[in-house]
Design a protein that fits this description.
With about 130 residues, the protein is mainly alpha-helical. The chain folds into 2 domains: about 60 residues, Orthogonal Bundle (Arc Repressor Mutant, subunit A); about 40 residues, no CATH class. Strands 1-3-2 form a 3-stranded antiparallel sheet. Strand 2 and strand 3 form a beta hairpin. The model has no long low-confidence stretch (mean pLDDT about 90).
């Protein structure tokens, strides 16, 4: 289970599909998994959606007997939470270790390396601007 929301891998998989669809029923998500060649029981998807609803990550509306789900948490918030959890629990709070591990184990093209450096530099510039406004 990752982050303060305690999300597991299957819950993250379901969320990925829900974010892409914006609103979906259990059947919509189930059919999408099948279309992707992933064998999963309808009842499993139903349970995951109920769990996500209980955790406050998604919400539902009822139309007749059908539940329509939407993500309550934006994708960026969940990503930030999961990464913070990984940095804290796996890399003992040391983001540098995460960066080093990432750089050593991932196969980056020169274009990808340049893009990552540019993202970090842009983040530094934004942080400096925020600091100078205070």
């Amino acid at each position: 289970m990752l982050g303060r929301f305690g999300l597991g891998p299957l819950e993250l998989d379901v969320l990925q599909r829900l974010w892409a669809m914006e609103t979906a029923t259990v059947r919509d998500i189930y059919k999408l998994f099948l279309k992707e060649g992933r064998e999963i029981a309808y009842s499993t998807v139903l349970t995951v959606m109920k769990n996500l609803d209980y955790k406050g990550v998604v919400k539902h509306t009822v139309e007749g007997r059908t539940f329509h789900y939407t993500a309550e948490m934006p994708q960026q918030k969940i990503k930030r939470d999961v990464i913070a959890y990984v940095v804290d629990k796996v890399f003992y709070g040391e983001a540098e270790q995460l960066g080093r591990h990432f750089a050593d184990t991932m196969k980056f093209s020169p274009k990808d390396k340049k893009a990552v450096c540019e993202v970090i530099q842009a983040s530094d510039r934004r942080a400096k601007k925020r600091k100078s406004k205070k």
